[in-house]
Task: structure prediction
Amino acid sequence: MQLSTRHLLGIKDLTPGDISIILNTASQFKEVLQRPIKKVPSLRDITIINLFFENSTRTRISFELAEKRLSADVINFTASASSVSKGETLLDTVNNILSMKVDMVVMRHSASGAPHFLAQHIPASIINAGDGINEHPTQALLDALSISEKIGKLKGTKVAIIGDIMHSRVAQSNIYLLKKMGAEVTVCGPPTLIPKYISKALKVEVSYDLKETLEWCDVANVLRIQLERQNQVLFSSLREYSLAYGISRRLLDDLKKDIVVMHPGPINRGVELDSDVADSKHSIILQQVENGVAVRMAVLFLLSGGRNPSDN
Result:
């Protein structure tokens, strides 16, 4: 099992074969995580730095747990507590860290393309943990694993991505992955939150009607409204957004079928999802969190040149 790349910069760079290898390996690691002793020695000689220039809780903890489950040596770095706050450049920061013989860098940055820049300048393997509004590849991979476990397949599955498409790196990575693996994709939200280019550029359907979209889909992947990334008013109020595009239990009960509900987190309860939807039988949000650790273990393991997790 070997990937066609030594970095994970985005889903755009992966082949369908790469995606299948990662998902299959993640499934094997899920079995490892059910054992009484969940730690394996796969990355015992590997040093990994988690380089987070942007706030994160779930993604950082998930990566750190995955690294420790694989017995890697882990260094955590946050920009606010570093020389970056004194004016040090990104390249200087990383070169200083690499002088300490780091093998892999997990990076989150507010600037789109920052991990790609690093990959061109340093010898360590780079894993993109989210760059600006560009991509969030491990989130798309864990979403895909969650869908395939629940539905049984990706090919032919109808997936609706609902909400703030314009500012979402999760949406872009999910679209790339789902299209590569043969799923059907529709994006849904207010016209102000859906890029005008998306239909032609990414070959997805666009809908502004939530009920119609839910009637069509097998899976609804609901995105957070990212107010921190919006530099202008794009809808009148959160209440108005919720009335038009929020998913309530009543809305689900009115459908002629059951659908799967997902969310990358954190949830704005009462805005994009009501609590009785987020916590319902339709929701696989907690499974997504569980799958996040297995997927990140798989990515770290494969990029380090690992062969078979079952051998551990």
